[in-house]
# Entry
Amino acid sequence: MNAIQVENLYKSFGDVKAVQGVSFDVPQGEIFSLLGPNGAGKTTMILMLSCLLRPDDGDALVLGHSIRRDPMAVKSVLGVVPQEIALYEDLSAYENLTFWGKMYGLRGAPLRQRVDEVLEMIGLTDRANSRVAKYSGGMKRRVNIGLALLHKPQVIYMDEPTVGIDPQSRRSILDGVVAMKGRGTTVLYTTHYMEEAQELSDHIAILDHGQLIALGTHAELVRIVGGLDRITLTLSAESPLLLEAWRQVRGVQRISSEDGSVGLLVEDSNQVLPRLFDAAADHRVRITSVDILEPNLEAVFLHLTGRALRD
Amino acid sequence: MKSIDIALQDMKRSYRSVVGLVFMFVLPLLTTTLFYFMFGNLASGGEFDLPVTRVIIADLDQGSPDLLTQLASAPGGLPAETLGEIVVLALQSEDLSDLLDVTLAADAAAARASVDRQQAEVAVIIPADFSRQFSTPQGQATLEFYQDPTLTIAPGIVRSILNRFLDGMAGTKITVEVAMREGGTGIASRIGEVVQLYLAVSLAQAEGSAAALIDVQPPGTTQEVSSPLVRIIGPIMGGMMIFYAFYTGFATAQSILREEEERTLPRLFTTPIPQAAILTGKLLAVFLTVLVQVVVLLIAAYVIFGIRWGEIAAVALMASGTVITASSFGVFFNSMLRSTRQSGALFGGVLTITGMIGMISIFVQGSPSAATLGNTVSLLVPQGWAVRAMVQAMDGAGAPTLGPALLGMLVWSAAFFAIGVWRFNRRYA
# Structure
């Protein structure tokens, strides 16, 4: 059974088409990632699925409830972790959790018990009574997530929950997401970090410019690029002429450049690399580093859009 | 229930803000305290400490044959042989000793010189024929009043005492003259007796006259307040309360914008609570916060300054009207803002200007000519209607009398509230 069914959603802001006819299904109990660069339409999707934005067209069902016709029912089964930290910083974690628990209808002893459980889950029992303003970024992120878990929702949306935090907190959050899945919760996870989507997801939808450009498991998506290798080269100096020359090299499928680093999709790296070095020498540009990677989601995105998935 | 939770949450945050608490409670009381010290002092129990006026009297009165025998034993056993001595004794009486320090000069020039040298504020010169003129049917008994032209209050007090004293005697004389015309000249010898009788009554009533002279009762007052200082401080405290209630209404309503910027408001919209209930909670927080502020200030002012606000029903209506108006005012203005960054100009400008206009009627209370204009101008802003209700309640008006002022507040509130809520609903639709 599908926890979420998205049917041909559209949303525009003036001339900007944020979401253009996106459809997908999220099976119950899965982690489903929406992957895409900034501005791809991920947050707009989350806002529509949270009933905070009304779609221009299309509909979505969350556990059978329509986001258009029954938004209150949708909200009652949802937990939403927004991209920005949305906490009362002048209150403690305990006070924040208590307040948001009340907003989801919890009262009295069950509320207190659940707050204690969530504090335990996010590892902040010891700091529960400190004001959130005094927390580190990672701790705030954990409280931000904890608020969405209070009412034990069956579906959780997490909108880029690891942005701007230290690796340790990031690891803790990713482990938490896996644990949610273990409890049978369906997680809709948006990110522009390819590694996160790759590590967590049962299914991945890749968005670009408001359109769904690929959907499948990690293995299915990687098969899109087939036997192509992903090469990343760092140059001593930027050279548009060199890039143009590389485009003409036999075996090069796609090429993108950013900040002195060039990403290429090539048919056989062993044969193509010497040709790339020769062309660089002709243009008097030195290659300072070379990375050859197995096909991954970055390669898929590059293959589909001709652009890199930027951090 | 969730609306109440939201309201209580907002209130908790408001009361945790030191700046908020200062604006809500400290500044109104502090400002009033400054006025309190400006107009009086706490050490004397809230009474005015008027400076003692130094009066120098040159009593040149040589008496009158018609008055001498009758005045030999003046009221209270005071030894007086002339009307001038009566005036001197009256000004030297025990009852006026807190107000007047009376000394005698040998002659008129010495008395005037004493004022010129600022050794006295007022000189009273009683002419030699004062008694005779008084006892003569067609005579005009006059006193010379010489004062430092730069002073107003001290000479005014002395003049007031003398006027009261002499007006009574003049009335007595007129009575006698009328009696003479009706009953014949034989009654002329009775003038002294009548004057003595008048003095007996007048001086017997003189106890407490000092207080009566400075007892400026507001029009129509029925208050039990005895301290004039409290009657001055009362409207000022009320004005401050209203002024800062509007600040609080504005600042508390700003939590809607602040939460939008903190992203907690959008997060609230992801919970299964209707938008109307969320906004109701927010508005309830504004209302309750201002209500607590007003109630605390009313009680604190009563306890600290002894201010009597009026009849309970009238005060309750005035307070409710103020709270509703201040809350809706805050909601309205915040609905006009895009972000909290725009609020600085409103805090500094609109609130202060409208607050000052609203309080004009308090500042011009002592000037009858300006009061009419002031009262009218103050009604151009919502604070003015609240001030009017407050002043009426303090004057002892009953609840029905406050009707027009309350209606004014409700009209303002309804307009502010309707526009504010409409704009917020549209914003978050």
Q: What stands out?
A: The first strand of chain A starts at residue 2 and ends at 13. The CA atoms of residues 6 and 203 of chain A lie 14 Å apart. Chain A has a mean pLDDT of 90.
